[in-house]
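One chain shown below:
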Amino acid sequence: YPSEFLVQKITEDNQIPVHLHVSVSLQYVAGLKGSALVEFFHGNIAEVENEELRHLMWSSVLFYKTPNVEVMACVLLSTKAIYFLLDDSFVHADEHQSDFWNKENSDCENSSFHLSCCFVLKLNDLQSVNVGLFDQYFRITGHSADHIVTCLTRDSYNTHTFIQQLMAVLSLLARTPSPEPVDKDFYSEFGSKNTGKMENYELIHSSRVKFIYPNEEEIGDLAFLVAEKMDGLNNLPSLNILLYVLAFQVDHVEGSAQNTRSLQPKTLILTSSDLFLFDEDYISYPLPEFAKEPPKRDKYQLADGRRIRDLDRVLMGYQTYPQALTFVFDDQDQDLMQNLTLDHFGE
């Protein structure tokens, strides 16, 4: 039986982000409070009788096998495993995930009986956790391609809290201790550092799970990439990345209700002279050890870029977090008449 404080904390965390749509089955889960939530976990999700629910978080998730399908999930951390309670639309959206779905249940779709599939990653199978730039997301890696999941929290606080809770739970695991490190001499210790590339910061937990954090070189690589898109490699020393944030680009669909399809995940990067939107691959990098070939697409792909000096005004919505911002650019280089013609007479 969890403490009152823990039950209250899990209840407070059980809130779906308002801007994201979820299925009826997950809405049911989000409506559970207090002990009902704990009972639901033990009755429907937990695989072992004596495991304890320690943390709950709502997050968008990406799977390594389906890098283009971002789906909402209720992430439950227990003393035995991490459970991803997935929106059932994810199963139908992608044929590669059809093995998740139990065909016998297909006749329930038209009834009031709603299903969710649950992806389980046992803590004993966990090998490493890669934390993304500025704690906007993190990737959990197991022993195969089926066991790689990225949680796009888009929130440094949620990322930090989950990592803390995960470390605490991993401390309870009884694993065989690592062999004693062999004393290295001066040359072997520093000789391997001459590759010109600094390794990422690694923290090896007592459970032997690696927690890998980005280093300054990742920001340097990103700055180089941004400068390349600006055709301003000469100005690279003076180029500063002021802001890196995972956001959504809102596509207004005429005559339709607001839905998730109008939100396109983007990485927003602000420099002192430009505003960029990138399509970023959050799941494939850094390459897992078993990867035979590099990913099909680059980590960053430019989607849009505008000069700050062309920014005319910024419109802010009145709603609370997440805040909607509209950037209005006055770009004199574009042919206004051509745009009007396209708007009025084109398809």
About this structure: The chain has two domains: 4-173, 216-329. Confidence is low (pLDDT under 50) at residues 100-108, 188-198, 335-347. The domain at 4-173 is CATH 2.30.29.30 (PH-domain like).
